[in-house]
Write a structure and sequence with these properties.
Number of helices: 11
Strand order of the largest sheet: 1-2
Shape: elongated
Radius of gyration: 17 Å
Largest sheet: 2 strands, antiparallel
Number of strands: 2
Length: 161
């Protein structure tokens, strides 16, 4: 299955949303958390984020205060100027990018602030932590545009963890 697993993954993910939702709802938390590191590593060994960058092109991370301080310092900008230039506030009251794709996404899908990137970017797609179960709606959404999330979910459903 692995060789064909990623063929037409976006279509397959869309078709399997109900199955993923049911799986996540019923999943044995301890078994899932035990398996996630290996599945996450396997997914990252098969999928090159630089070939995709869907997350950077279509979605914004949250920019928390430490992120804003670190990035604005790196860019030699005042925090208020960084916020005014790049950020807006979403419905949850979080700072997010005001435009997409991410203004820090460069050619060949490289991030120009990679070492200083927001913690949301550093942690994405959360396939090695309990967020995958705690925030199931986010996991389902991520599986529609992130091949790594899709891969990890498929492997968990396949193995009936």
């Amino acid at each position: 299955m692995s060789n064909n697993l990623l063929t037409n993954w976006e279509k397959k993910s869309g078709e399997r949303q109900k199955e993923y939702k049911r799986f996540l709802h019923r999943a044995n938390k301890n078994k899932v958390l035990k398996r996630l590191p290996a599945l996450n590593e396997e997914a990252f060994s098969k999928i090159d984020c630089l070939q995709c960058a869907n997350c950077c092109k279509n979605y914004s991370p949250r920019f928390k205060t430490p992120d804003i301080k670190r990035i604005s310092k790196h860019l030699k900008m005042r925090e208020s100027d960084f916020i005014d230039t790049y950020l807006g506030v979403d419905d949850d009251g979080d700072f997010v990018l005001k435009s997409l794709p991410c203004p820090f996404l460069g050619e060949n899908n490289f991030c120009s602030i990679y070492e200083q990137r927001p913690s949301d970017c550093r942690r994405f797609p959360y396939t090695d932590e309990d967020v995958i179960l705690k925030r199931q709606a986010l996991t389902l959404k991520n599986s529609t545009f992130c091949p790594i999330t899709y891969y990890v979910l498929e492997k968990m459903v396949e193995k009936k963890i």
